[in-house]
């Protein structure tokens, strides 16, 4: 996948998002039988489930590393607000 990149000024690239691979048009999907659509659905489901598991493993590993370093930063103590100058 190619995501929009940022140029020197920090603005997103205006090129359209174009995923790699062959995309199926709506005409192709309309001409498919129910069994073919179900097979396609199952294939897509398996691919996405695999990607999701890989991403979850990466995130859990990052979380383990953060916890081993010292966990989440503690809350900073806020200074009290100054007393109001005028009261109604």
Structural commentary:
The protein starts with 25 loop residues before the first helix and ends in a 19-residue tail after the last helix. It is elongated. 48% of the residues lie in helices and 0% in strands. The protein is mostly helical. The chain has a domain at 30-66. The protein has 2 helices and no strands.
Labels describing this entry:
elongated; 2 helices; mainly alpha
Would you identify the regions where 5 or more consecutive residues have pLDDT less than 50? none
Name the shape in a single word: elongated
Any idea what the radius of gyration is?
Answer: 25 Å
Order of helices and strands: HH
- Percent strand equals under 5%
**Kindly state the mean pLDDT as a whole number?**
78
- Give a count of the beta strands, DSSP E runs of length 2 or more: 0
Distance between the termini: 60 Å
Q: Count of helical segments?
A: 2
Helix share bin? 40-55%
Structural class of the helices, strands and pairings? mainly alpha
**What does the main sheet amount to?**
none
């Amino acid at each position: 996948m190619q995501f929009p990149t940022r140029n020197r000024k920090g603005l997103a690239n205006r090129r359209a998002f174009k995923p790699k691979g062959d995309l199926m048009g709506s005409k192709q999907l309309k001409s498919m039988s129910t069994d073919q659509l179900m097979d396609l659905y199952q294939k897509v489901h398996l691919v996405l489930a695999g990607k999701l598991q890989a991403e979850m493993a990466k995130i859990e590993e990052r979380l383990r590393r953060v916890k081993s370093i010292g966990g989440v930063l503690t809350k900073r103590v806020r200074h009290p607000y100054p007393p109001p100058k005028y009261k109604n």
